[in-house]
Amino acid sequence: MRLLHSPLFRHIIATNTCLCHSKTPPNHICKQWRAVSTALNQHIQDLSGSEQTLLNKLYAGLIGGHRASLAESITLVETQHLRKKELAQVLLQRVLAFRREQESHNGGKPVAFRVGLSGPPGAGKSSFIEVVGKILTGRGHKVSVLAVDPSSCTTGGSLMGDKTRMTELSRDMNAFIRPSPTSGTLGGVTRTTNEAIVLCEGAGYDVILVETVGVGQSEFAVADMVDMFVLLIPPAGGDELQGIKRGIIERADLVVVTKSDGDLVVPARRIQAEYTSAMKLLRRQSRSWNPKVVRASSHSVEGISEVWDEMRSYQQVMLASGELQGRRRAQQKVWMWTLIQENVLAHFRHHPAVREALPQLEERVTRGDISPGLASDLLLKSFLSSSS
Ligand SMILES: Nc1nc2c(ncn2[C@@H]2O[C@H](COP(=O)(O)OP(=O)(O)OP(=O)(O)O)[C@@H](O)[C@H]2O)c(=O)[nH]1
């Protein structure tokens, strides 16, 4: 029996079709959805009884806001196991349908606010998240903190996960902290983080903080998955700040100069002034929001509430102008293409014809016998001729 006939899959179709009908969409939208459903049906074999039980249990627990179910669901999307990956997609599809329903009750607007936080090592990110997180849970928000650790992708080590971080927040029942997956490519980690965001939102978390350290490409990956991107800069000068890439400053919707307390207030003010004038010269990213540079201290808590107020006004302005929703739509496409690139490249690399020809061609390219362009053309040719 194919998945199409399984109760769970019928539920997915029913949930989506009913949402589809509730807005009386044009015929072609329904046709497209039917095509997607058929593709999903072909993609996933029928679920066994135990798989259905597992998914039903996870879904109910997740929607009920149980942290253990959320943690287990994220583990499912992080898995490398092929079958479990398929189960994760079925679960995600259900959670997405649930979220769309919530959004339709919210006037079509996203219910959760996704904020990316980045900065050089030691900038004070975890201290900042701990303090902001506690303030937010104190005000009745449910906060989840996800991490994207670039070092886990290259060395299998960790820039962020090894030490105990955010000890108080991790004990807070209205907070959920999930460290970065410990291995995989940046694309893989990005995918699972994107999916973890969806799961956290399904579990009722209305503020999602995605933290990364300002090394490699992870900052750009995070900027592409959030509503607002915040850069945290320590009040140090010279060399320490040179590591901050111009490209990422351009992506910042807000810059927070951290540790603005005691002797560090003076350098923090100087950095604030420098960044304020530098940012005036940068290309504007939004027509409704001007990025700001503010100072805060996690130790004295001075300025922290104001930072959150800035974040909220950003959210309100961007929602009102529709830019936030537009960003999310564009991000979905970027995310899809990143996954396509990664999958296609992996398929290419593992293809028998490519694997056979590769060592010799690499050797000839490094010797300078043939150009890299010719080698790639030849590889592509052998890939295509043996794929057709
Ligand atoms: N004076 C002062 N020090 C701070 C403040 N926030 C953090 N620090 C100190 O800065 C150091 C780094 O803080 P973390 O919060 O661990 O910084 P991080 O950016 O998360 O660091 P990584 O985990 O290495 O990426 C610690 O020694 C903190 O005590 C602050 O508001 N004022």
From TrEMBL:
GO molecular function: GTP binding; GTPase activity
One term under GO cellular component: cytoplasm
Record flagged with keyword Protein transport: no
Gene3D superfamilies: 1.10.287.130, 1.20.5.170, P-loop containing nucleotide triphosphate hydrolases
Reactions catalysed, as given in the entry: GTP + H2O = GDP + phosphate + H(+)
Stored SUPFAM superfamilies: P-loop containing nucleoside triphosphate hydrolases
UniProt KW keywords: GTP-binding, Hydrolase, Nucleotide-binding
Protein task: GTPase, binds and hydrolyzes GTP. Involved in intracellular vitamin B12 metabolism, mediates the transport of cobalamin (Cbl) into mitochondria for the final steps of adenosylcobalamin (AdoCbl) synthesis. Functions as a G-protein chaperone that assists AdoCbl cofactor delivery from MMAB to the methylmalonyl-CoA mutase (MMUT). Plays a dual role as both a protectase and a reactivase for MMUT. Protects MMUT from progressive inactivation by oxidation by decreasing the rate of the formation of the oxidized inactive cofactor hydroxocobalamin (OH2Cbl).
Family membership: Belongs to the SIMIBI class G3E GTPase family. ArgK/MeaB subfamily.
Protein name stated in the entry: Metabolism of cobalamin associated A
